[in-house]
Amino acid sequence: MNEEMNVSDAINYRRSVRIFDKKNIDSEKVKNCLVNASLAANSSNLQLWEFVHIENKKILKKLSNVCFNQNAAKTANQMVVVVVRKDLWKERAKWNIKQINKQSIESDITIKRLNQAKTYYNKIIPTLYFDVFGFLGILKNLIFQTIGLFRPTMRQVTRTDTRIVAHKSAALAAQNFMISMAGFGYDTCPMEGSDTLRVKKILNLNKKAEISMVIACGLRTEKGIYGKQLRVPFDEIYTYI
Ligand SMILES: Cc1cc2nc3c(=O)[nH]c(=O)nc-3n(C[C@H](O)[C@H](O)[C@H](O)COP(=O)(O)O)c2cc1C
Q1: What spatial distance separates the first Cα and last Cα of the chain, rounded to whole Å?
Q2: What is the C-alpha to C-alpha distance for residues 177 and 34, in angstroms, rounded to an integer?
Q3: What whole-number distance in Å separates Cα of residue 188 and Cα of residue 18?
């Protein structure tokens, strides 16, 4: 399939596929889908993610093993590991300031907006992300919850909260990736069923990296889709106000 599908078609086409065909998929196209992944909305544009794209058969076999030899992992033609790098927050905040400064020279961004952005990355982001073994988070939580008694305030300030924030953004990137793959007629299966410590060791990842998802990739087989796509009735989960 060369034509790319439109977004709704790709969303409808995407299914979690557990048994992939033996045919190869084009790794350049997979890489393009990862570029699309990196365009996902993400918290504070900190982009606390990395994507590891695996085609090497030996590594695929090792990964399959630590994904408990699930069918999707065993039959995957390629894999993508979505990695969360919350530890990069300081570098990425600096990077954002640099880009905003550059933009201010190249375009007519107002001084007010420039200063707002700088305050955001110099003050607010460190307030949220800086922590010492989680202790500061407990204190911040107390302060912010107290402020919250009197006015609206940020409440996600503990170390766990910011981990969730980083994982949320990585998951959005994973979804962008899977929809893009579907757009090319390629299939995926996201897997949290893995020994994440061993995944990290196999891929030689940074000690502070966390695994969001291992995504098996390939082409679907008929038996690889385990039944109809099941969802609770939409009315049960939809509220219109
Ligand atoms: C975060 C996450 C983790 C998942 N982990 C696994 C997994 O380890 N193994 C698996 O076979 N499917 C896994 N799935 C796939 C879900 O089971 C699947 O998305 C769900 O049943 C809905 O089916 P559909 O994707 O075909 O719509 C995972 C999905 C997500 C989003």
Answers
A1: 42
A2: 6
A3: 8
CB atoms within 10 A of CB 18: 21
Q: Where are the beta strands (DSSP E) in 94-218?
A: 187-191, 210-218
| Mean pLDDT of the region 121-136 | 92
Ligand 1 atom 4: residue of nearest CA: 191
Residue 17 CA to ligand 1 centre (angstroms):
9
Q: Summarize pLDDT for 19-71 with one digit per residue, the tens.
A: 999 999 999 999 999 999 999 999 999 999 999 999 999 999 999 999 999 99
Q: How far is the CA of 191 from the centre of ligand 1 (A)?
A: 6
Domain architecture of the chain: domains with CATH: 7-87+176-237 (3.40.109.10), 90-161 (no CATH)
Model-level pTM? Answer: 0.95
Residue 6 Cα to ligand 1 midpoint, Å, equals: 23
Half-sphere exposure for 206 (CA within 13 Å, toward CB): 13
Q: How many CB atoms lie under 10 A from the CB of residue 25?
A: 21
Residue 66 corresponds to which amino acid?
V
3-class DSSP assignment, residue 167: helix
Which residues partner with 20 through β-bridges? 220
Report d(CA 94, CA 102) in Å as an integer: 12
Q: How far apart are alpha carbons 5 and 52 in whole angstroms?
A: 25
Q: Atom of ligand 1 at shortest distance to CA of 171?
A: 1
Residue in this structure with the two tokens 């992939």, named with its chain if needed: 20
